[in-house]
Design brief:
It is a single chain. With 397 residues, the protein is of the alpha/beta class. The chain is built from six helices and 19 strands. Helix 1 runs parallel beside helix 3. The radius of gyration is 22 Å and the shape is globular. The mean pLDDT is 90.
Length: 397
């Protein structure tokens, strides 16, 4: 095949991250190919009643449950130059098999093997840049408590939760106290006979005034009919829903890509996004507890500056030093290894400012931070009703 000066981009996933990467890459005049293993674009935001595996034997990707609404305002859910369109402030098939770097003069940098799921046909392609946008809300993380195999009731992860109806008149235990746990608790409390939430710090469980809710500490073990907790207390329950988060997983990246994941810490990434070992690859959307679409759009624009040569990346040693400084700051704050990508406290908007300043790109609008901060404040005050608020942007700031 004749060599072309048009750069070729491989985008893995057609969710919010993949779509913005494709848009910004295409704006440079590049040839862009997006690979998506489901039947539609939208990633985890595409609702399906299905759980388990799809008709091709692949795990169902979406974690969307019925009646889910965004937990941050729509104005913080769009991209930097386009707002999410909704009448409410809080709105409710090719698979990549393997990516490996190519070596040798004149070769494209990446070899990508894909499978056409409908035709069950494989194809090998070559690209100059790879932007991995497969998301991290599709591979559930379930704690391995003793006795999980002896419990006779229902055990599911929130990934497979769709609606509360199936838990009518059941004794339900939720494990975890994050966003999905609060949504599921509020819905389940209306139909369950009893509702218990287990969390390592029960004082931080804030699901509002749910009269049937009881809080407990960490589970020590499961029994055939219930669980025992580390404080020595026990309950009987018929359903356990693990709201315990997700694992970063990149099964299609070959070892030669130089990316490792250990205790949910993805390394080595410059600014949490560019593969330091092969800087023509980016992993979009790794940081969490954030304004995801705004962040992914910013990350895409950040990477394009370097992929097009508009900006030059620092040396490998400087990128590693920058990454190490970030890790040391997180350790100083007492964050465990699994939270090395968590944007806690003031980290989120400092990260966005750093990306924009480093790459010389348009930063996020000031209203994004203000609205996010106010949203989180109001959520703490009234987790059950804060999504009934309506925000209006009245000026640039």
């Amino acid at each position: 095949m004749a060599q072309s000066t048009t750069k070729r981009y491989c985008i893995v996933g057609a969710g919010a991250g993949g779509l913005t990467c494709a848009r910004h890459a295409a704006d440079t005049g590049a040839h862009v190919t997006v690979f998506e293993q489901t039947a539609s674009v939208g990633g985890t935001w595409v609702y399906t009643d299905a759980t388990g595996h799809d008709r091709y034997g692949l795990p169902v990707h979406s974690s969307m449950y019925r009646d889910l609404r965004t937990n941050i305002p729509k104005q913080t859910m769009g991209y930097w130059d386009s707002e999410l369109v909704s009448d409410r402030t809080y709105p409710g098939q090719q698979e990549v098999i393997r990516i490996a770097p190519l070596f040798g003069e004149g070769a494209s940098q990446w070899e990508v093997i894909v499978r056409d799921l409908r035709e069950n046909r494989y194809e090998t392609l070559q690209f100059d840049f790879v932007m991995v946008c497969n998301g991290h809300y599709s591979c559930p993380m379930v704690p391995e408590y003793p006795g999980r195999d002896v419990f006779v009731g229902i055990q599911i992860h929130s990934h497979d939760y769709r609606c509360a109806d199936r838990f009518k008149d059941q004794d339900v235990l939720l494990v975890g106290a994050g966003y999905s746990a609060s949504d599921i608790a509020i819905a389940t409390a209306k139909v369950a006979r009893s509702l218990t939430v287990s969390h390592h710090d029960p004082s931080k469980v804030n699901f509002g005034n749910l009269p049937t809710l009881v809080t407990k500490p960490t589970i020590s073990k499961l029994t055939p009919t219930g669980v025992e907790f580390v404080d020595g207390t026990a309950i009987n329950c018929s359903v356990i829903i693990y709201c315990t988060g997700y694992r970063f997983t990149y099964p299609f990246l070959s070892v030669d890509c130089g990316i490792t994941v250990e205790d949910n810490h993805v390394t080595p990434l410059y600014k949490h996004v560019i593969n330091i070992n092969h800087p023509t690859m980016a992993l979009i959307g790794v940081p969490f507890y954030c304004c995801p679409t705004q962040m992914m759009d910013l990350q895409a624009r950040f990477c394009i500056q370097y992929f097009t040569g508009s900006r030059s990346l620092p040396s490998r040693s400087d990128m590693l030093a920058d990454t190490e400084a970030d890790l040391e700051e997180r350790k100083r704050r007492g964050l465990p290894k699994k939270w090395m990508h968590k944007l806690v406290d003031d980290m989120q908007f400092k990260y966005y400012e750093d990306l924009a300043r480093t790459a010389g790109i348009v930063p996020l609008k000031p209203t994004v931070e203000k609205m996010f901060t106010e949203c989180m404040r109001r959520r703490m005050l009234d987790v059950q009703n804060y999504r009934d608020d309506e925000f209006e942007v009245v000026g640039e700031d």
